[in-house]
Amino acid sequence: MRRGKGFLFTIVVSILFMVQSCDNYYHPKYNLQATWKCHYDQDLSYESTKTRIAGLWEWRYVICCGETSKPYQNSTESKGLQIEFNADGTGSLNVNNTTKEFTWDIDLKGTNLYGFSTTPFISQIHGRLLFCDNIMMCNTSYLDGSDNFFEKINSGGN
Question: 0.90 exceeded by the pTM?
Fold first, then answer.
């Protein structure tokens, strides 16, 4: 009996260690819960959201399906991605010195949550939009997708 308790204790401690070590991989600046809280501390309307979006954004971080296992680890698909949103609903996507043009707008995706509608479709900015300071999160983890974090480089809006 005593041997069984020791084995059970070892398993429980091992599981707790693994769970704790996984939590340390996420960078606090790109934290899902903190971004949600910060977003809801604001009152963003359709117009104020569009105004907030205008400018140049650079992709920084992704949380998805085990893809990110170390702080600041960039996905190979999004590394170096910059997206500029103009106030007139046009934009440009620049990755690896290749620029592609697109059009954009936002649609309601829930209570006080908006999401992009782009032509053509841009996977990194799919989902619900959340803002905290100069960070924009495109949230699709509620659909078993990824959460992409962008940092605003400068304000703009031709």
Answer: no
